[in-house]
Automatic annotation (TrEMBL):
Name of the protein described by the UniProt record: Cytochrome c oxidase subunit 2
Gene responsible for this protein: ctaC
Family, per entry: Belongs to the cytochrome c oxidase subunit 2 family.
Annotated source species: Methylobacterium thuringiense
Alphabetized InterPro entries for the sequence: CcO_II, CcO_II-like_C, Copper_CuA, Cupredoxin, Cyt_c_oxidase_su2, Cyt_c_oxidase_su2_TM_dom, Cyt_c_oxidase_su2_TM_sf
Location of this chain's protein in the cell: Cell membrane; Membrane
Record key words, sorted: Copper, Electron transport, Membrane, Metal-binding, Respiratory chain, Signal, Translocase, Transmembrane, Transmembrane helix, Transport
Cofactor note: Binds a copper A center.
Transmembrane segments: 59-80, 101-119
Cytochrome oxidase subunit II transmembrane region profile domain boundaries: 34-129
Amino acid sequence: MRTVQAKHRSQWGLAAIGALLVTSTAAFAAEPGVPVPWQMGRQTPVTAEALDLMNFEHVLHWLAFAISLFVLGLLLYCVYRFNEKANPTPSRTTHNTAIEIAWTIIPVLILVGVAIPSFRTLRTQLIIPTADVTVKATGHAWYWSYDYPKAGEDGGFTFDANIDEEKEPKLLQTDNEMVVPVNKVVKVQVTSTDVIHSWAMPSFGGKVDAIPGRLNELWFKADREGVYHGQCSELCGMRHAYMPIVVKVVSDQAYAEWLKEAKTKFAAIDDGSKLAAAK
């Protein structure tokens, strides 16, 4: 009976490992910017900053794994070396200067080693280079609106992006997308009209809170075309889960054509409020 149960447990274990490998492979094979069922890792990074964050996270995971193995080894050694049977006469030592210095200095060195790349990545995120495109994202309960400020002949319009529950991927599509050009520095200014929201785009490695009365900002430079999906990542209310964010990254030519179309599609009056959605 036990043999049969052990055999069944082994089969279930192999099946679980196989399912994990399949889902992991599916995640790696997935189109960038689109989450997949049972995905455990990050979405494919399409900015240098997102890639840095993913690599930094992997290093931290391996570091934590190594520290855990080291501590486990120490525990097993102490159990084996200092148990009552192997060591019937326990030591009366109360202090060991070398050990105390080591367990103080080594963690400090580990933290310094972690802090250096962490501060470097944070500095890159916070210092915004000269922007090629600026977009203002405003959070509402519960949808986003995007304002393209007037720059020469371009911009000067605002539109709303509401969830479209009929499109796939489910609950991650909107009726209008934020459109930006590829390989260009995009600065996103983020605010809110009611409660605290959060504009987050996993493939870009960016997230910033939308706070009423405050203008926060982040930047990204996507290195490939595509449609990328995010969501509000602040618990903002009843329909928090229905505030998707969709960013469409296109070529320079396609972006120029979209700007011309958008100026007529999203007509606006002088004070910047939306007058009508077009045709």
